[in-house]
Amino acid sequence: MTNIRLTKPTMAVLGVLLDAKPDAPAWGLSICREADLGPGTVYPILDRLLERGWLTSRDEVEAHPGRPARRFYEFTGAGRAQAVEALEARAARRARFSLRPAGGAA
Protein backbone atom coordinates (compact mmCIF):
# COMPACT_ATOMS: atom_id res chain seq x y z
CA MET A 1 0.00 0.00 0.00
CA THR A 2 1.39 3.35 -1.02
CA ASN A 3 1.57 6.30 1.33
CA ILE A 4 -0.48 9.38 0.59
CA ARG A 5 0.35 13.03 1.18
CA LEU A 6 -1.50 13.94 4.35
CA THR A 7 -2.53 17.54 3.80
CA LYS A 8 -5.04 19.34 6.04
CA PRO A 9 -7.87 18.67 3.55
CA THR A 10 -6.89 15.00 3.34
CA MET A 11 -6.85 14.75 7.13
CA ALA A 12 -10.31 16.36 7.25
CA VAL A 13 -11.65 13.79 4.77
CA LEU A 14 -10.06 10.95 6.76
CA GLY A 15 -11.71 12.25 9.92
CA VAL A 16 -15.14 12.32 8.30
CA LEU A 17 -14.67 8.79 6.96
CA LEU A 18 -13.55 7.51 10.37
CA ASP A 19 -16.66 9.03 11.97
CA ALA A 20 -19.02 7.34 9.49
CA LYS A 21 -21.11 4.48 10.86
CA PRO A 22 -21.49 1.13 9.07
CA ASP A 23 -25.26 1.66 8.76
CA ALA A 24 -24.71 5.22 7.43
CA PRO A 25 -21.60 5.22 5.23
CA ALA A 26 -20.13 8.47 3.97
CA TRP A 27 -20.94 9.61 0.44
CA GLY A 28 -19.36 12.31 -1.69
CA LEU A 29 -21.38 15.43 -0.92
CA SER A 30 -21.85 14.46 2.73
CA ILE A 31 -18.05 14.31 3.02
CA CYS A 32 -17.81 17.77 1.41
CA ARG A 33 -20.32 19.15 3.91
CA GLU A 34 -18.79 17.50 7.00
CA ALA A 35 -15.19 18.37 6.06
CA ASP A 36 -16.21 21.90 4.97
CA LEU A 37 -14.45 21.40 1.64
CA GLY A 38 -15.59 21.77 -1.95
CA PRO A 39 -16.10 18.85 -4.33
CA GLY A 40 -13.08 19.97 -6.37
CA THR A 41 -10.96 19.20 -3.30
CA VAL A 42 -12.79 16.17 -1.87
CA TYR A 43 -13.26 14.03 -4.98
CA PRO A 44 -9.56 14.06 -5.99
CA ILE A 45 -8.68 13.06 -2.41
CA LEU A 46 -11.20 10.21 -2.54
CA ASP A 47 -9.76 9.10 -5.90
CA ARG A 48 -6.22 9.01 -4.45
CA LEU A 49 -7.39 7.07 -1.40
CA LEU A 50 -9.17 4.57 -3.66
CA GLU A 51 -6.13 4.20 -5.93
CA ARG A 52 -3.87 3.52 -2.98
CA GLY A 53 -6.18 0.95 -1.44
CA TRP A 54 -7.23 2.93 1.61
CA LEU A 55 -10.91 2.97 0.55
CA THR A 56 -13.50 0.97 -1.30
CA SER A 57 -16.57 2.47 -2.92
CA ARG A 58 -19.96 1.22 -3.97
CA ASP A 59 -23.01 2.71 -5.61
CA GLU A 60 -26.30 3.11 -3.80
CA VAL A 61 -28.68 0.37 -4.91
CA GLU A 62 -32.08 1.79 -3.95
CA ALA A 63 -33.79 3.96 -6.56
CA HIS A 64 -34.12 7.62 -5.69
CA PRO A 65 -36.23 9.55 -8.21
CA GLY A 66 -34.93 13.01 -8.90
CA ARG A 67 -31.27 12.39 -8.09
CA PRO A 68 -28.51 10.05 -9.16
CA ALA A 69 -27.38 7.15 -6.98
CA ARG A 70 -24.87 8.09 -4.30
CA ARG A 71 -21.41 6.54 -4.17
CA PHE A 72 -20.54 5.34 -0.67
CA TYR A 73 -16.94 5.28 0.60
CA GLU A 74 -15.58 2.99 3.30
CA PHE A 75 -12.11 2.17 4.58
CA THR A 76 -10.35 -1.08 3.86
CA GLY A 77 -8.91 -2.69 6.99
CA ALA A 78 -5.40 -1.48 6.19
CA GLY A 79 -6.69 1.94 5.13
CA ARG A 80 -8.50 2.43 8.43
CA ALA A 81 -5.34 1.47 10.34
CA GLN A 82 -3.24 3.95 8.34
CA ALA A 83 -5.82 6.70 8.76
CA VAL A 84 -5.97 6.19 12.53
CA GLU A 85 -2.17 6.18 12.70
CA ALA A 86 -1.96 9.40 10.66
CA LEU A 87 -4.55 11.21 12.79
CA GLU A 88 -2.91 10.03 16.04
CA ALA A 89 0.51 11.20 14.81
CA ARG A 90 -0.95 14.60 13.95
CA ALA A 91 -2.59 14.88 17.38
CA ALA A 92 0.74 13.98 19.05
CA ARG A 93 2.58 16.65 17.00
CA ARG A 94 -0.02 19.25 17.91
CA ALA A 95 0.17 18.34 21.60
CA ARG A 96 3.97 18.54 21.55
CA PHE A 97 3.90 22.00 19.96
CA SER A 98 1.15 23.31 22.23
CA LEU A 99 3.20 22.45 25.33
CA ARG A 100 5.95 24.89 24.36
CA PRO A 101 5.74 28.12 26.32
CA ALA A 102 5.06 31.32 24.42
CA GLY A 103 8.16 33.36 23.67
CA GLY A 104 10.44 30.36 24.21
CA ALA A 105 11.00 31.01 27.93
CA ALA A 106 9.61 29.00 30.78
Textual characterization of the structure:
The chain has 106 residues and is mainly alpha-helical. It has helices spanning 8-19, 28-35, 39-51, 77-98; strands at 26-27, 55-59, 71-75. The chain has a 3-stranded antiparallel sheet with strand order 1-3-2.
Report the C-alpha radius of gyration, rounded: 17 Å
Structural class: mainly alpha
- Summarize model confidence as the mean pLDDT: 88
Beta-strand percentage?
A: 5-15%
Task: Kindly report the spatial arrangement of strands forming the biggest sheet.
Answer: 1-3-2
Task: Please give the structural blueprint.
Layout lengths: L7 H12 L6 E2 H8 L3 H13 L3 E5 L11 E5 L1 H22 L8
Antiparallel strand pairs: 1-3, 2-3
Helix pairs in contact: 1-2, 1-4, 2-3
Concise account of the structure shown:
Helices cover 52% and strands 11% of the residues.
Summary tags:
single chain, 106 residues, mainly alpha
